[in-house]
Amino acid sequence: MTGRATVLIIDDEVRSLETLNRVLSEDFDVLMASNTQEAEKLLQSEMIHVILCDQRMPDETGVEFLSRVREAWPDPVRMIISGYSDSADIIAGVNDAGIYRYITKPWHPKELIEIVRGAHELLDLQKENETAALEMKLTTQTLKRQVSEKKTIAKKHFHFDRIVHGKGSALGETINLAKRCAEFDISVLITGESGTGKELLARAIHYGSSRADKPFVVENCGALPDELLESELFGCKKGAFTGAYQDRIGLFEVASGGTIFLDEIGETSPAFQVKLLRVLQEGEVRPLGAQKVRKVDVRVVAATNKNLEDEVEARRFRGDLYYRLSAFPIHIAPLRDRVMDVEPLTHHVLSDVAASFGKVVKGINAATMAAMKTYPWPGNVRELQNEIQRMVTLTDDAMLGTNVLSPKILRDYESNENALIGEVGLLKGQVEFLERQLITDALVRHRGNITRVADELGLSRVGLRKKLDRYDLKKVTWLEGGRHG
């Protein structure tokens, strides 16, 4: 649950107000109003989670007031408390004001506390379930089950073991490092180029921690101007700035008890960094336009593709915030430095993409894989994923061939001198390696056309086929859109 709930009580009888305050104040932050005008002022200035309103008041009924509240401040859970149980009032409350509960007097203190606690829990569950409409006909139990099911799936999907990498990859050591820090409540700073999988590692850290049953919330700090970013992270009151049409609970409060992932933290302004530092130091947020601060318990995992030490030296990033965020730094190497990851990543992504596109693609041939291993992947894993999606879209064959590779990857492969470098020992090994590479290159250039490859290499078709068998290159001739000849 997101901290301590703020409950607004509205009743024109002073004794009733005092009694409700006495019963609820031990478990909740209570605000009191003796009429609807006072209540509106509090709704304008404070973050209210639950409203308890008397039904019969001099100026207007509770249902009439909460119907207006529903339009202006739809987030708080609205409840009527009354000594009258007129069925017409109850029906109007449900239909017009979106009333969560209609509580009749006399009420029992313990039962009332549980009802208010349940209302706050409902609000939390709806936020986690990415819906702000209390009008939805979902019970607390239904929402609990949905959130629980999503978390179970997420734990399985974002486990450390699901991060694909090859044998001997630097990513293996990175994962081991992340596993060690996951169990401790420490801030983590993940660095690496765009597309290397920083968010995936952050999710694995969250779901490998004691906070796994609580929310994991993501914000891209480079995508919003300061005012909107503050509103997203810290919350705001209606009218706090142009465009603030309703109260908003900030992501720090939504993530309370769990983890917040601040991506592209290096893109934030110095002014915003001061405010973020205060949140991290004090463990509390002040929504824009609100008077009171809200306590939050959040683990922060931040990420950047910049060298923040250089940014600190250049005075573009606050040193005190950097040291607060980088208690445990983790670096993810670019894909060009992890060539052994290309093949397992390709097969993993291909399986997912083919299934989602509804196409039968069984694999990728040797020549195409050789070209993909040579390419430096400046966009890292994200670029590889995009390339495979493009290839699956274009192919009409069961095996992905070079005919569906992007021209830039083929050009890079054909011009890269490293394509002729391998682990060689004796002269015989060098000759065989070079011969195998020359045949592979020719097959790529001629799209598997055996006649043209044989002509270029000065071989007969029979001689070429023998060499294809010898070097296990026969699968290269599974045509990439060309003809065998």
UniProtKB/TrEMBL annotation:
Pfam families: AAA_lid_14 (PF25601), HTH_8 (PF02954), Response_reg (PF00072), Sigma54_activat (PF00158). PROSITE patterns: RESPONSE_REGULATORY, SIGMA54_INTERACT_1, SIGMA54_INTERACT_2, SIGMA54_INTERACT_3, SIGMA54_INTERACT_4. InterPro entries: AAA+_ATPase, AAA_lid_NorR, CheY-like_superfamily, Homeodomain-like_sf, HTH_Fis, P-loop_NTPase, Sig_transdc_resp-reg_receiver, Sigma_54_int. SUPFAM superfamilies: CheY-like (SSF52172), Homeodomain-like (SSF46689), P-loop containing nucleoside triphosphate hydrolases (SSF52540). Residues 164-393 form the Sigma-54 factor interaction domain. Residues 6-120 form the Response regulatory domain. This is Sigma-54-dependent Fis family transcriptional regulator. The modification 4-aspartylphosphate is found at residue 54. One of its GO terms (biological process) is phosphorelay signal transduction system. It comes from Magnetovibrio blakemorei. Signal peptide: none annotated. One of its GO terms (molecular function) is ATP binding. The keyword Transcription regulation applies. Gene3D superfamilies: 1.10.8.60, 3.40.50.2300, Homeodomain-like (1.10.10.60), P-loop containing nucleotide triphosphate hydrolases (3.40.50.300). Keywords: Activator, ATP-binding, DNA-binding, Nucleotide-binding, Phosphoprotein, Transcription, Transcription regulation, Two-component regulatory system.
